[in-house]
Amino acid sequence: MNTQNTEKQQEELQVPTSLSVKNAAQVLRMPEDGLPYLRHDRAAELTLDAGSLSTQDGRITDFSHDESAEIRVDASGCAIVPGFVDAHTHLPFVGWRAEEYAQRVGGTSYEELAALGGGIAASARAFAEASDDAVLEQSGSLAHEMLMHGTTAFECKSGYGLSIEAELRALRLAMELDKQVEQHTVSTALLVHAVPPGLDADTWIDQVKAAMPEIRDKTAAQAVDIFVETVAFSNKHLEHLADCASEFGLMLRCHVEQFATHHSVPVAPSVGARSVDHLTFMHADDRAKLADAECAAVLLPGAEFLGEERCPRARELAHAGAICVLGTDLNPGTSPIISIPLIIGLAVRRYSWSIREALLAVSLNAAWTLGLSAQIGSLEVGKQADFLLLDGPVEEIPYRFGRNPVAACFIAGRPVYVRPDAKERFELPATMQ
Ligand SMILES: [Zn+2]
Is pLDDT above 60 for 108? Predict the structure, then answer.
């Protein structure tokens, strides 16, 4: 967790010091403590027994009720689950591309739109024209909507800069956003997103390499990212970026196999990638390599659904034991989705996943992808108390598709969002009423 987050936690710890939630119908727990991630062939071992949860100074202390806690919450009929971790978003950005969505629904391809100056280039223009305040205002408001849907930590990516200077600006704005929102954030430098106008891919990679010391020294980026696709970069560029990542101590993430098969999957895990994201067109022969690797398979069913892409072989990936993760891919082009409950609904239906598999993919495994699973991502004594109160059993999340089940959201033991109808469940100290 970066320094800003540590400072943020200390602020949050001032109120309250203790909190206890009692009588939940379900509490989602891992089969054992201390796991960095859980491979999906073990997802059935997650437990959902009835219970309570208590916190002190922002951390989980116990799974029993503490009647002396400063804040007491009645969770009858509710589920307690870890706060959702959205491991793949493109915040901060500004503007929307609704007209492109209408064109794509009408049959225009993403590649055709890109050739007409749409796609990433359109968002890059909007980013260049907007003031810092405008970018932060839209991004902050999206982060608040995410909070109301249970997201307590998320990834930010640059990528709409298309010049080193503008990418540094995006990463600086991500640091600003982190200060302004309740959630914990982790920044990824998606420097290798689209080939900037007037350059070729090799020249851009050289510029990125030269900028790495500045990225390390002036931003909070913890990872670098690349888009490997016919219209973007190649596996050779992926290998070059892997060298940069290891030289500068950053994690490597990659957008791969989204629109066609490029066999980037055997390459990415073999050069130490933390995650491979999208995987719609991953070749079946590459599955075993990923299932054995310490590399997350980040699936983005919202982008697939809105792009009318085919489904990745998610059932087989889970069965093979890959570290499966779900994210919104929140971005103004292919996935303007903020809601993890919606993503869970899509994954359960389209991937034939169980609710346990979907919840694992938005909690511990997503936290591991961001390098945060020692602190958050599961309900364990000693971990930071980031959790949600859902207003019904977890099985209702995918079933009541499109509905938001989040009644309250807690970060570091502090209620940061309480839905109006859930307020009566809370017994607050006089100073907080
Ligand atoms: Zn993406």
Answer: yes
